[in-house]
Fold:
Amino acid sequence: MTEISSELLTELPGDPSSELPPRDLALIALGANLGEPLAALRQAREVLADVGEVQATSWLYRTAPVGGPPGQPEYLNAALSLLTTLSPQALLLALLGIEALSGRVRLERWGPRLLDLDLIGYGQRALHTPRLTLPHPEVFARAFVLAPLADVAPGWRHPVTGERVQDALRRADQGGLERLNERL
Structure:
């Protein structure tokens, strides 16, 4: 999968007088419950290192499926923070491309998947377009996102409400969430 990074990334216009393009910290949730989830998450982490500079990775979490068809296998979830020069929209396209190249096909909402990459937050930006809402609209309602996110960005605050990740995790239902003894 690492060969795809050059296909997905394009030079962004910038100030030619600046030495380095501006970089922002993106928060990305990773999940998988089909095939070999651990291998898929780690391969995605390696490809994401070509998209930006991985700053932190979370513990791995085994979680019960939320929504979707009954009988799905448990998920493996994680999060990472990524320092990137890509815009939020370009980063979203890169994430979708990585998913597609991993074999993901979107058949049903909350269905089983080989790889799921969600852009959770991008600095302190709030954004709402037809393709992208930042922060992710359900981030503070899901323990399987909040727990790994608390590992990589415990003090991050929702740019609209000001709520901290740690506080949201304390109030979230953590049933079916198991932290493994291994990091992404």
Summary: The helical segments are 5-8, 37-51, 88-101, 143-152, 165-171. The first strand starts at residue 24 and ends at 32. Residues 1-17 have pLDDT under 50 and may be disordered. The radius of gyration is 16 Å.
